[in-house]
Design brief:
By secondary structure, the protein is α/β, with parallel strands linked by helices. The chain is built from 13 helices and 8 strands. α11 links the parallel β7 and β8. The longest helix has 20 residues. Bound molecules: flavin-adenine dinucleotide. The site of flavin-adenine dinucleotide has 23 residues, from β4, β7 and α12.
């Protein structure tokens, strides 16, 4: 109930104003977000890379409804990628792209062309792009765009959400050589007709998907902070005789940072998803929805400062 409420609020203009202007919001937001500028993001990326971690950078923004804003997002990514290359961080950091930030809701072809430009900039920087998966209504379009992009950029990463009832089927289709696939549980509100609602069902689906990906020929990117699933991933790597460089763990910036370092110290590849920018509202609300304790922390800080 609370999760659904927060996810609905993540798309409400009214609640957005209240949260964005609350006096302590920024302080709490900084736990999950690297900062508002590219300088902030590059500083955090350099620090994480120095600790042996990989990074995927997300320029915050989604649900863009005009072409000028979509264009701005593309330019922002191109600038970021150019600067990553200048700093020699192309081998340590890639980018994550939300297609709704580059015009998917306006026109699929616009989003495809814009994503192509981001992939071109990534290639010049010696790195890759992963297409984030958003709301269930965008899944078919995102997979079509992924398929088109992979014609020219075969290393473009896909994301499959295990809460989708069709997740295992998608994973089977994507478990081929050279295919980079991020598996996550799913962070959006979705109807029961397309997605599991029960946490145990979502977790069981995650394990089924992981089995398919780890036994397959692709490159699995296991995005979860769930200790049980991380353990199962390790067991599946042994079972499938996978070397540490044939898959990676992924976690969000600010969540279980000690675990990220522990896995990396054990020789695993760990990539941290670093989101930054001014449009942090939707991303922040999804992080609150994932863990009610985060909401308590946010409310307590607001009350004590208010
Ligand atoms: C690298 C990465 C990329 C992602 N990309 C996408 C995407 O493209 N599309 C999409 O829909 N979702 C994406 N997600 C979000 C994902 O779908 C989940 O909502 C999120 O990862 C929480 O699920 P979990 O697997 O960590 O398990 P959970 O069962 O939610 O959490 C397990 C444990 O992790 C810790 N934890 C989890 N979330 C939080 C939090 N917000 N704050 C504090 N502690 C927390 C807690 O200790 C919790 O008990 C991504 C997640 C990661 C890590």
């Amino acid at each position: 109930m609370l999760r659904q409420g927060l996810l609905v609020a993540s798309r409400s203009g009214g609640v957005r104003k209240i949260v964005e202007t609350a006096p302590v919001t920024r302080q709490v937001v900084r736990r999950f977000i690297a900062g508002e500028t590219t300088d902030d993001a590059l500083r955090v990326t350099g620090d994480l890379a120095g600790e042996g971690l990989l990074v995927t950078l997300d320029v915050l923004g989604e649900d863009v409804l005009d072409r000028a804003q979509a264009e701005q997002t593309v330019k922002h990514y191109a600038d970021l990628l150019g600067r990553l290359a200048d700093l020699g961080l192309g081998t340590r950091a890639e980018v994550s792209l939300k297609l709704t930030a580059v015009g998917q809701a306006l026109d699929e072809d616009v989003a495809l062309e814009n994503a192509r430009r981001v992939c071109t900039a990534a290639r010049s920087a010696g790195t890759t792009v992963t297409l984030d998966m958003e709301d269930h209504s965008t899944v078919d379009s995102t997979l079509r765009i992924l398929h088109e992009l992979r014609g020219d950029f075969p290393d473009t990463g896909a994301v499959i959400q295990s809460y989708l009832r069709r997740a295992e089927e998608y994973c089977a289709e994507l478990a081929f050589e050279g295919s980079r696939v991020r598996l996550c549980k799913g962070a959006y509100a979705a109807p029961e007709s397309v997605a599991f609602d029960d946490k145990a069902d979502i977790d069981r689906s995650y394990v089924r998907c992981m089995k398919v990906l780890m036994a397959g020929k692709g490159y699995p990117m296991l995005a979860t902070h769930d200790p049980r699933l991380v353990d199962i991933a390790g067991a599946l790597a042994v079972l499938n005789e996978r070397e540490p460089d044939t898959f990676e763990y992924q976690m969000l910036y600010g969540i279980r940072p000690q675990e990220q370092r522990r896995l990396a110290e054990q020789g695993a590849q760990v990539r941290v998803y670093v989101a930054y920018g001014e449009q942090w509202y939707g991303y922040f609300m999804r992080r609150l929805a994932e863990r009610p304790a985060n909401l308590g922390f946010f409310v307590r800080s607001t009350v004590s400062k208010g």
